[in-house]
Amino acid sequence: MLEKGYVAARSGHSRGGTVDLTLFHLASGERAPMGGDHDLMDEISDHGAKGLPSVDARNRRYLRSIMEACGFNSYGCEWWHYTLKDEPYPDTYFDFPIV
Q1: The whole model's pTM is what?
Q2: Which sequence positions are flagged as catalytic?
């Protein structure tokens, strides 16, 4: 998983500048189809994955356009993973217990 880029040895999630997210339909509360679930460590999770249903590919592009317009970078291997471009602590990895 590390060699393929699906799991980082040190994660930006610890500093709050990296988030995993998806789209929901507000009216129904259902998740929008994205062509695979979160943390699916497979080529189908790539932003440019081939063979997705058109609605799933469109939803991925929509999420990416929203996030990039709001100052986040996408991660090519995971359609759900975004990192704030101007993180306040980009080289810091926080490690503390959450209770």
Answers
A1: 0.79
A2: 78
